[in-house]
Neurochondrin
Amino acid sequence: MAGTGGSSTLRRCLEVLRDARNDNEQFAALLLVTKAVRAGEVDAKTRRQIFDAIGFTFPTRLLASGKPPPGCPDYTFRALGLTLLACFCTDPELAAHSQVLNKIPTFNDILLSPCDPDSTSMVDDVYQCLSAVMATSRGPRELVTKGTVSALCQAYVNGSYGSDRALALLLGLLAVAEEKCWQRDAPHLLAVLSKLSEDFLQTEDMTKFELCKVLPHFIPLSPPLTQDPQGSECLHRLYKGLANILGSKLSQSQRDPALKLAACLVQAYGSEWIPAGSAGSKFLALLVNLACVEVRLTLEEPDPLEAEGKKEVVTACYVLIEMGIQECLREEKPLLEEVQKMQLMRIMEEAFGAVIFYLRQVKQEELQDPFIFASVRILGAWMAEETSSLKQEICELLPFLVLYAKRFFKEGSSAGSPSQPELVSKEGSGLPQDALRFLLPGFCHLTAEDRPRDILISEGAPALLCEYFLHQWEVLTSKPGSLTPLTSTEMSLQTMCGIFLNLVVTAPDLIRRDKTFSCLMDTLLKSLPLLLPQKGHLALAANIATLGLMMARILAGSTALQGTQSTKEFFGAAISFLSQAHTAQTEPGSDSLTLAVSPAYMSAWADISELWFLGMQALAGCIPLFPWLPQAMLQARWLEGVSELLTHVAAASVDFELIAAFQGVLVELARASKPCRDVILSHHGREWANLYGMAALEQCLSEQ
């Protein structure tokens, strides 16, 4: 702040500015004002007085002025104008003013203009203005749309005066508007990444580790760098730089940022940035190994996460470990050799032992911590793939996992609308209420085994899963007129169908006595007729049809299944799903017809064939339990379809399992309904039953 003498001088200057009769008087007063501003002799009150005296008019005129006073450099007026604007921009209200925002193109031009040693103050003032603008609510959007990202990139790449400030501003803009920045200025940002990656590879001092902290901000999820030659070259330099770092002896403060950079690359591109071959496989194994060691060293400590930044490092290690799991399971063009896979699985098992140990220490008041969620999520990834190891420890942790998933699902579903379930941060971790999604595949494996299934049932997991199924179904159907293509939601529904199928087979009494399953049955009845006509949802339809048929056998006596409209519509849709799976087709170079999977089913058949056979078996089991079902199958002309198929195709093209599936349903229909038996006989049923070796059907048809 100015002293008393300085303040009085400034006041006199402001009076001159207000009352000046010509440009020379104004210019002299302005020089004194800007001199005071540059010297830092202006407090907030005085700054406001200056603005009230001259407003934006003077700075605007100065920026546009051409010829300077005699003996002054060409940029004199512009420099004065920028100094005043920089002064005004220290007031957030003025920094957000449209008169400042419309100067952004001018600021950009100055950054891109040659800067001699005498005009560096202009560049300093521009950076001060841009920094102030970025701190306002509208600022980042205005800077991006008015071309500042491009100007900053060029200033940095060219090594212009103040390039370090250009980089800092870029980091700020990418933090709040990454997607828009890359959409508008990908080539310029790529040039910055190219320079950073080159520096990262070449430098041999502590700068290398500082760059580890900067580089993640320049790794875009879109557009993918792997699809651009310059981007691919950047990724290769980052790979080589990280290989050099992580292959050396490092301190904790050096290793942590390197692991975080590697995790950022994995999050964006999986293992695509790691080259195939011996060097690449060794690097990948090293990455996962280091991550596992870090997890163990940290989580096995008495107070594991007290050190600042530890949670971020361990979370980064989780990303690397998840890649390790995926690479160990990868069969097509694997990066790892079999020996490396076996070694890594053992090391990862030890790391997950530490994760389980940590989660068992978690207190109720800590459950909101996002790090707990990250730990549960990575454990879910391990449980989804590795079903034999740590079984005892996982069983002991199941009560906690069910409690955790239940608490945050209940809180999340009551707080948020069902149409917005997939709120996922850039770090790839969903909101805590979606933790259950990551545990579902593991629960699917565990419900097939006695002990973990008993624990899950005793902890109330089936009721929770039924609620979650209803919620996810609501999410899938929340868009009016059609099903939304939400892959993770649909996958969750399919996995839950798998869990419920396990329970139907292994714990039918639970299905009968737990009222939640009656509610689930009701949803299945209504959902299949809606789902089946929709394109692209065949796998989910197969799951729901099969689960519904299997549950209908157990709940046949319930009110919901007593010939209601929704029941009949469900069975109609299930019959349609099962009947349309096969067709007769001509073999190339032959006139004979063979039985084949229908074209509409072909792409999903590998995933749904087992469900189809199980569905046929369940349908056969339902026929004696629902007296109206044979009539429904007559109306659907299912018998005529099967008869036509088996009559026209070459018998050798129908495998034994398929014959057994058809025979199971045909026998039940012939036993339960005389009209069905008559239709079979009238369509040469005895002949093709004999042809296909359907002994049970032949016997049934021969009985009076």
The radius of gyration is 35 Å. The chain is about 70% helix and 0% strand. Residues 163-202 form the longest helix (40 residues).
